[in-house]
């Protein structure tokens, strides 16, 4: 009986959201909305408990010392080096019902990553779309040209450009070099990317409502004079690359459903990314059905 009452209440809330939406206004301005974004014609379908691992933008100069490791709570490893995915994507099949910790591996430094955050992949099956984005529009981690900047131990700063830089050895024979890399995760898609000279990268994103797109990144440097750094960023969100996030603020709320309703009514304009995020059922058009699905997601009915 309690479950029935809960469901009836949730459905009623959807109705309230629909009625109240005509009184609400958009939460962000046109300038805040705009993010440089383009959908490519490439898609990939995977099954539940499967990972799709690929690379984009790699050249002969791209640092190849990275990979992804998915470790169970029982410390069983499922890992792959990104250099093995350059010519063709790879697939990892994971056991059902397991919880995993995600890591980024480097050949010289072992691996780093999450130690207390767990992920499950039992419901990650579906379609993934490759998109091209201006990285700096989606995360402060990246500069305009796609590089990442870190402070060294001597107070100076260095830009990391996804290449391996060999500085030979210092006066006591220690190897000096710099390396950097990053990969995006969106549901069951893992994309190791190298941006172009203008700061654009291609990654795969989930078409499943509410699934965020996050980045793991790594930067290491040791110079001959001893200056050094060792940085890893875990789970930085690419804000706006979430199906259902119509206002592009990183969250799904009643505002997103409201904007879809206003677009359908012809009183709101959408850019490319908003159109992409608003087509929740992925049927090629935006309608009140998409707004309803967002409302159901908010109250836990999806």
From TrEMBL:
Record keywords, A-Z: Signal
Matches recorded under InterPro entries: Dockerin_1_rpt (IPR002105), Dockerin_dom (IPR016134), Dockerin_dom_sf (IPR036439)
Name of the molecule in the record: Dockerin type I repeat-containing protein
Stored SUPFAM superfamilies: Type I dockerin domain (SSF63446)
Sequence ranges assigned to domain Dockerin in this UniProt record: 239-302
Coiled-coil stretches: none
Signal peptide bounds: 1-24
Domain of life: Bacteria
């Amino acid at each position: 009986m309690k479950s029935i009452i809960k469901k009836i209440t949730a459905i009623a809330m959807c109705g309230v959201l629909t009625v109240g939406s005509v009184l609400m206004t958009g939460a962000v301005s046109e300038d805040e909305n705009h993010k440089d974004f383009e959908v490519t014609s490439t898609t990939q379908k995977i099954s539940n408990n499967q990972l799709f691992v690929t690379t984009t933008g790699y050249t002969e100069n791209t640092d190849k010392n990275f990979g992804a490791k998915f470790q169970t709570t029982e410390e069983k490893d499922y890992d792959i080096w990104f250099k093995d995915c350059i010519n063709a994507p790879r697939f990892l099949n994971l056991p059902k019902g397991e919880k995993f910790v995600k890591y980024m591996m480097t050949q010289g430094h072992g691996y780093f990553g999450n130690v207390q955050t767990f992920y499950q992949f039992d419901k990650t099956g579906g379609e993934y779309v490759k998109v091209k984005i201006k990285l700096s529009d989606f995360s402060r981690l990246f500069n305009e040209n796609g590089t990442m900047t870190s402070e060294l131990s001597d107070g100076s700063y260095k830009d990391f450009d996804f290449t391996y830089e060999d500085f030979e050895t210092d006066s006591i024979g220690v190897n000096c070099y710099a390396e950097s890399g990053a990969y995006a995760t969106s549901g069951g898609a893992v994309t190791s990317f190298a941006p172009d000279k203008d700061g654009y990268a291609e990654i795969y994103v989930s078409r499943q409502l509410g699934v965020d797109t996050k980045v793991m990144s790594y930067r290491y440097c040791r110079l001959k004079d001893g200056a050094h750094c060792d940085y890893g960023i875990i789970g930085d969100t690419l804000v706006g690359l979430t199906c259902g996030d119509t206002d592009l603020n990183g969250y799904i709320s009643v505002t997103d459903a409201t904007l879809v309703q206003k677009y359908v009514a012809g009183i709101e304009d959408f850019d490319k990314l908003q159109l992409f995020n608003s087509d929740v059922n992925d049927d090629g058009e935006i309608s009140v059905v998409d707004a309803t699905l967002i409302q159901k997601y908010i109250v836990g009915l999806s």
